[in-house]
Every structure is written in C-alpha cells, then in structure tokens.
Amino acid sequence: MSQAIEQGLIEARAGRDLSCFDLYSIDQLSLADIDLIYDLARLFRKAKTEKLSLNKGCSLVHAFFENSTRTLASFDLSAKNLSMDTSSVSGNSSVKKGESFLDTAQTLDSYNLKAITIRSAEAGVAEMLSRHVRASVINAGDGWHEHPTQALLDGLTMLDHSKSKTLQGKTICFVGDIVHSRVFGSLVRLLKKLKATIRVAGPLTLMPAYVEKFGVTVYTNVEEALAGADIVYALRVQEERGANGFIPTLREYSKMFGISRKRLDLAAKDAILMHPGPVRRDVDVHSALVSVDEQSQILQQVENGMAVRKAVLWLLCNRMDNKVKEMTRL
Ligand code: CP
User: ω before 278 within 30° of 0 (cis)?
Assistant: First the structure.
C-alpha cells in the first residue's frame, strides 16, 4: 500500500523541486512552487497517516520559542509519517541562559539536520537563521510577520471550496486583529499571487499602517465588509501581543466585530468561515459557529495542515547540498 502511495507521489512530483531551499516567506514561492505543493498535498491528504519512507534518514528539530498546538503537532506528525527522526527545543532551551538564536541554530545544525522549524516572538528570525545554517529553515511563525505554512494550508482549503478551482474573482474578508497577525502577513501575500480580492475589517487601532499597499480594501464597518464575501476569515485578538490595549473591552470588540450567525449570513450564500486557531470563542467567532456549523472549515484547515506540511518537508529535505553550494557562492 505505502509503496503504491510513494510511487504515486514520485510520479506527481515528476522531478520538480521548489525554487527555494528554505521557507521563511510566501514571497519566496513562485506560482509553480505553489502548484507543486498543492499537487503533492492533495495526494498526502488521501494517504492519511500511512507511514511512508520518503524522508527516511532525515532529522528535524523543532525550535519553538512560543506556544503552539496545531503547528508543532502537525509538523511533528508529518515528519514522523515521512519516517523522519525529530526532536524539539523550546522556551526552556539554552536561549533562556543567554545563548543567541544564531548559536542555538548552529548548534542544532551540527547534528546534520535536514530541516529546522522555528517559531519565535521576533520577526525575521527564520530568515536570518536560514543564511547561517545548512539545514532548511522553515518559518513556523515569526512575531507579527509571517506564518507561511498556515497560509498554504488556508489557500488549499479555499481552493477546495471554489467551484472554479481558482481564487481569481473570489472575495476574502478578514475580520479582527490584522496588525498582530502573521497569518494575515503570509495569507495576504499568497492571495495576491492567486489574484483574489481582499477586504479587511476591524478597529482602526488593530489595522497595520499602510495596509492598503497590499492591495486590500479597508472597512471599519464589518457588515459592509462581509456583504457578499465568498470567504470570511476571522482573526484572533492577540492578547499576548498587547492587543487588549487597542480595544475598549473584549466584550465590546465581540459586539462590534465578532462573527455571529447574523453577520455570517451577510456573506455569500455558500460562503465558508475560516479561522487559523486557536479560536477565542464568543470573542472572534460566536461559539455555535466554530466547529459544528456546516459553513465552518476550521477543523478542515487543521487537517489540511498535515498534508501541506508533509509536502513542504518532502520538498525541502535533501536540498542541503544545493543550499550549501548556494551559500558558498554568495
Ligand atoms: N494556527 C496556529 O499557528 O496555531 P498554533 O499556534 O496552535 O500552532
């Protein structure tokens, strides 16, 4: 069974490789790269948790300096399904004793890893480290900046729900704490590449300065923003980044911007509801809509995370030799 799945994946890959050796930003990906990831992710999804030997002999360390449930668990399970050896360092690592991110990453790199996943509260850490280690660095979320695999899994969820199998002509409406959202940071870049129309709604205090430069339309009235949207994407108020200081109270925020049944009904009839998780029930989204409503794709997003991360891990592992050549050339 697993041999047939592997053969199918190898045929679908058809010798194709990503144009990058690391993944710290959606900006690194061409349309061909995105197609390749999605071709493979759809096959990995079909294979469910079948144990495959595609990355046998490859090691991966998760360096997560911020909390995570979905990203860490799915990267780790994905790696194990691909027969990789994995280990984790966390907020309790030697960074707490004063070691720099760079020294930590170079220490881990000495174990001849093929990949390092990194989550940090600081923007730019993954990109900086990618220039100094041989392993492929995968950004699992850096501060307010980017979270590329989250955007890729969201893009797959959106494409699966588009009858035309494209996002061109589709309207995605983001609602919530845009300024602190690395999910928005990556997803807006991906959706622009896929030619979607993007609206953003939320308190102006939670809107990034110059957000219009991404080619999005800004609304302060959530009802106007939601009207006729094909996809409603709610974003969490990020208390850990001080978002509560930008709104009067969570209760008032929920009243003004929380996605309720009534608000969701303003979107297109067959609209879907998405959220990257973790959800703050009754703040970002009304509890009754979160996991049981048929419009909610929140758990499907989670499932797609495994498929996309397997594709990314398979594509990036074993690129180390080429990456080192490229680094030496620079
Ligand atoms: N969406 C997301 O990144 O979730 P975690 O913080 O649980 O990984």
Answer: yes
Topology match between the domains 1-147+304-317 and 149-302: yes
Q: Give the three-state DSSP class for 140.
A: strand
Ligand 1, atom 5, residue with closest C-alpha: 68
Atom of ligand 1 lying closest to residue 119 CA:
8
Task: Give the binding-site residues of ligand 1, using a 6 Å CB cut-off.
Answer: 68-71, 141, 147, 150, 276-278
pTM here is 0.97
* Residue 127 near residue 108 (C-beta atoms within 8 A): no
Q: What's the CATH code, domain 1-147+304-317?
A: 3.40.50.1370
pLDDT digits (tens, 9 = 90+) for 11-47: 999 999 999 999 999 999 999 999 999 999 999 999 9
Nearest CA to 177 out of 145, 200, 148, 149 is that of 200
Nearest protein Cα to ligand 1, atom 6: 68
Which CATH code of 3.40.50.300, 3.40.710.10, 3.40.50.1370, 3.60.10.10 fits the domain covering 149-302? Answer: 3.40.50.1370
Question: Which atom of ligand 1 has the smallest separation from the CA of 72?
Answer: 8
